[in-house]
Amino acid sequence: MGKDVIVACDFANADQTLAFLNRFSGRKPFVKIGMELFYAEGPAIVQAVKARGHRVFLDLKLHDIPNTVKKAMAVLSRLDVDICNLHAGGGLPMMQAAVEGLTRPDGSRPLLIAVTQLTSTDQQVMERDLLIREPLARVVEHYAQTAKAAGLDGVVCSPLEAGAVHAACGSGFLTVTPGVRFAGGEMGDQKRVTTPADAKTLGSDYIVVGRPITAAPDPVAAYARCCEEFIG
Ligand code: C5P
What we know:
Bound molecules: cytidine-5'-monophosphate
Number of helices: 11
Order of helices and strands: EHEHHEHEHEHHEHEHEHH
Largest sheet: 8 strands, parallel, barrel
């Protein structure tokens, strides 16, 4: 897969999501479905979006004992999503079990990526709440290497970390990066942001973009601008 823009469809229900996607008559965006929408609508929303020809990143960030994650991933593999994810903090055995569970009888499986440290976690939260005393950048790099050792395909990280992850894990190891804003755009609650063009320069493979597209006066134009800046 080449570089692409993934639109975070952080809507409360199926009606709003499908009304939003109906606006795209040309290129069909790669869609991210997160916890809010999935918990509201269940697997049917994934099937509805897939049936309209979109690729889907199902962002449920699993984190549990290996046996539970393995069984949950087996269920997700039957939904025909293109990318799903988990927390690298669950450890190597959990990630290995996830790969096993996700792999279909014919050997195929969706791409599986790991959240390293959430972008809402900073050095202070890591040290105070998690008792992790290494520098955040080192923790992200180590979690990425552990994800790779478990057989995963990449990580969710900041565009600012994409270069270090590729250096540690190889250029084929995917970096999927939220925290993207147009130059001069609203930051919202994101703290460390880059433009689509900067994310491209920094080596992100996929950018995840929500409000700069979903809340734009013309979402189709905002998506086109994002693709133009990031993919070229
Ligand atoms: O609206 P915005 O562009 O900030 O949306 C970013 C999306 O990426 C949201 O769905 C958010 O939950 C997700 N995300 C993130 N940071 C992470 C992981 C996921 O912003 N570390």
